[in-house]
Structures are given as C-alpha cells and as structure tokens.
Amino acid sequence: MIFKLKADSPIYLDRLNGIKHLIIGNHDRHNLKNDRFREQFASVDEYLVINDQERKVVMFHYPIAEWEGFFHGAYHIYGHIHNSDNTAKTVMEMIPNAFNAGVGLNDFTPQTLSQLIARNTR
Asked: Where are the alpha helices (DSSP H) in the chain?
C-alpha cells in the first residue's frame, strides 16, 4: 500500500473519504497481517469485477492484456508499473480500455473511472 513507509498505514487511510476496497499488490502482504489495516477496507481482493454506472470494470494490481469482458468494452484498472518507462507501460498504453491508476500518474489523488478515462484519452 505505502511502499517502504515506516509509519502506520491506517493513519493515512483514515484521511481518505468513501468506501475503500483493497486490490492486493506486491507490497501489501506484510500490511495484511495487521488487523487495523484490514479493517480500513470494505473488501480485500486479488481481482475484483464491479459495475460503475453500467460500465464493467476489472481491477487487478498487475496490468493484464485481456480480462473478463475485454471484447465487450469492459475496463481494466491496474497499478504496479507506476510511472516507469518500460515495456509493460508501452504495451498497456496500446490496449484500449486499460488504465493505470497509479498515484504517480494521477496527481497523487484518488480518481473516478470517468477521470481515468478522460486522462487516458487526451
């Protein structure tokens, strides 16, 4: 969640409004042992499929090339690659409806699906 941060993550999570759902990433395993950390989330999942205003959204920490509903316009929201200039970023930018939700690309603020779509289709 907060890579290499020595402070208590729930202090930061308490500042976020709304209902929080955790998509488990590669740096979350240690934090998941902390009950106070887990209590911050309505759900904790590796892979989650939701509907946002009738739009199907697949969330997974890692970028994937195809996902449930890919051929029917579903969206994929991912993180992991941050703002790195690497092959994964280049490939994922070519895949329609796949959006990097990493904070480094998104003004270090939570983004709605509509905001991610607008930011990635400019």
From this structure: 9-13, 35-38, 87-93, 113-120
Q: Give the bridge partners for 56, in sequence order.
A: 51
Task: Give strand ranges (E) for the chain.
Answer: 21-23, 43-45, 47-52, 55-60, 75-78, 98-100
Strand partners, 10: none
Cross-strand bridge partners of residue 55: 52
Question: Which positions ≥6 away from 3 have C-beta within 8 Å?
Answer: 27
pLDDT per position as a tens digit, 83-107: 666 687 778 888 999 999 888 878 8
Measured CA angle at 102 (ends 118, 58), to 5 deg: 70
CATH architecture assigned to 47-122: 4-Layer Sandwich (3.60)
Element (H, E) at 10: helix 9-13
